[in-house]
Design brief:
alpha+beta; elongated; 7 helices; disordered C terminus; Glutaredoxin; 2 domains; 60% helix
């Protein structure tokens, strides 16, 4: 019978110790990963819950605004301030979970329906009350690479900040929502994003802010009060 030498015992104990340490490291890493994943999942669920609640609140506000008389202020049109915050939160969620996430897509559809309702409410108040405002419908795409869509989004975000009576409605061209398909049909668009609908006419490809401003009649009347005051002062700042 072969005897086990002291050296072999030491080697076996070393292997056992290394195995236990390695197993412990993997266990700690696994538990830590599960812990942080649980925290992240809980945070996302909180965002989802907040977005759903905000959608319901915004829907109720639209119903109230629809009954508002023409002499009652409606924040320079129908667009509710919470919509911008809702868009930001949806964008954050899309960044976290990806553009193909089912929950993200579902919430984007709900948000898009609210935007269409906002657009229709604004058009109705323009007809009934003669409110001074203008709209841009913007179609972008998350399918493939659309660098012009990213640049176009930055330009429109800047314009939204400068013109409080300019209402911009951004829709994912490929969202698969029948109401968006109806908009595309009305304006006879074809897939070539970015697409801007200004004065019921489609414009394809990236447009600078200067190019867009030339397409909107009486654009200066849509400025915010602070921008209107500052526009009388010459500036040497280059256009971004």
């Amino acid at each position: 019978m072969t005897s086990i030498t002291p050296q072999q015992n030491i080697t076996k104990r070393k292997f056992l110790v290394v195995f236990i340490i390695t197993l412990g490291i993997f266990a700690v890493a696994f538990l830590a990963s599960n812990y942080f994943y649980s925290l992240r999942t809980a945070a996302i669920k909180d965002v989802e819950s907040g977005i759903n609640r905000q959608i319901v609140e915004t829907e109720i506000q639209y119903q109230l605004l629809a009954d508002a008389a023409c002499d009652e202020p409606t924040s320079a049109g129908s667009q509710i301030p919470q919509m911008n915050e809702l868009a930001r939160r949806l964008d954050d969620m899309e960044q976290q979970r990806g553009t193909n996430d089912k929950e993200v897509i579902s919430l984007k559809k709900d948000y898009s329906l609210l935007m269409i309702k906002d657009y229709l409410l604004l058009r109705e108040r323009q007809r009934q009350c003669g409110e001074m405002s203008s709209t841009i419908i913007y179609f972008y795409s998350n399918a493939g690479e659309c660098t012009d869509c990213i640049k176009m989004g930055h330009v429109l975000t800047q314009m939204r900040e400068q013109y409080d009576r300019l209402h911009i409605y951004a829709f994912d061209y490929n969202l698969g929502l029948s109401s968006i398909d109806t908009l595309k049909s009305i304006y006879r668009t074809h897939f070539d994003p970015p697409i801007l609908i200004i004065n019921r006419k489609p414009y394809y490809g990236f447009k600078t802010q200067e190019q867009i401003e030339k397409l909107i009649p009486n654009i200066d009347k849509l400025r915010t009060a602070s921008d209107t005051a500052s526009s009388t002062t010459p500036t040497t700042t280059k256009e971004q």
